[in-house]
């Protein structure tokens, strides 16, 4: 998994080139804006939808809906764009949605493995398809799958994203890869030190904007799949209306992992420069509340100007930390046997 994480910068460059070669921006800008954009995908392939929505931001002139299931909502029709993303090109939920989109006459854009069932659906519908050279698990190819979606957002004029931006993002992921390289010791390696913070804890991971919430969800999912580890995802302000009460609960009072004193619960807050002023106040107050109750807190700040750069700093770190946490527990980060077994159990 570590080599795949280290390849993130290369994946941004390859994903960008693939999207440009497939003419994504031109093909999407040629039709005028759709009424709504639906991004369909599950697991790691769905994260690009969160990233697209975050780069488009709150001021987006149309709804951007993330769909992580089988059925296209009834309101979706011919004036809408459905973007179907699947690393393998064969996730049943995504294929089901892509097929319904074609049947309803929606515009379709596919992103995923070449020569896959998803490519066949797109090709048969004469829809654009960005074939990216996915190798192994989709989560190890996030940037190959997500970068074309940001190119699509730029094509739809939902975000500013040019070649320079993708190069800056690639450089920032390279920088993270250097700082998190295996030979670098924990005290200067942010990936290892975050893994040490998370170890022996039940992390409650909060985003404070669409940018850092996308990264928070990615961190939680990477903890599950790489480290086979539980985590609770939340975002402010919503988490202040429910999850915050866990600061007073049993997980905050004792360490379920050991007989030693200490606390299981840990609050992990992913900060952003672009927070609603009330969310900023809520974040500061929540962190103080956690401190007052002795709940340990890890605060991480997204760095950069463009939302994609800010997501890259946190996602790059999340990918390393989750892999180092797995390795710290002597767990192989790559296999996901529970998912494989589950798929086998429901296969006809
Ligand atoms: O990413 P695709 O291939 O669409 O598959 C969807 C998801 O399937 C799951 O069961 C896992 O394997 C995920 O890593 C993957 O993202």
From TrEMBL:
<dbReference type="GO" id="GO:0004476">
    <property type="term" value="F:mannose-6-phosphate isomerase activity"/>
</dbReference>
<dbReference type="InterPro" id="IPR046348">
    <property type="entry name" value="SIS_dom_sf"/>
</dbReference>
<dbReference type="GO" id="GO:0097367">
    <property type="term" value="F:carbohydrate derivative binding"/>
</dbReference>
<comment type="similarity">
    <text>Belongs to the PGI/PMI family.</text>
</comment>
<protein>
    <submittedName>
        <fullName>Mannose-6-phosphate isomerase</fullName>
    </submittedName>
</protein>
<dbReference type="Pfam" id="PF10432">
    <property type="entry name" value="bact-PGI_C"/>
</dbReference>
<dbReference type="GO" id="GO:0004347">
    <property type="term" value="F:glucose-6-phosphate isomerase activity"/>
</dbReference>
<dbReference type="InterPro" id="IPR001347">
    <property type="entry name" value="SIS_dom"/>
</dbReference>
<dbReference type="GO" id="GO:0005975">
    <property type="term" value="P:carbohydrate metabolic process"/>
</dbReference>
<keyword id="KW-0413">Isomerase</keyword>
<dbReference type="InterPro" id="IPR019490">
    <property type="entry name" value="Glu6P/Mann6P_isomerase_C"/>
</dbReference>
<dbReference type="GO" id="GO:1901135">
    <property type="term" value="P:carbohydrate derivative metabolic process"/>
</dbReference>
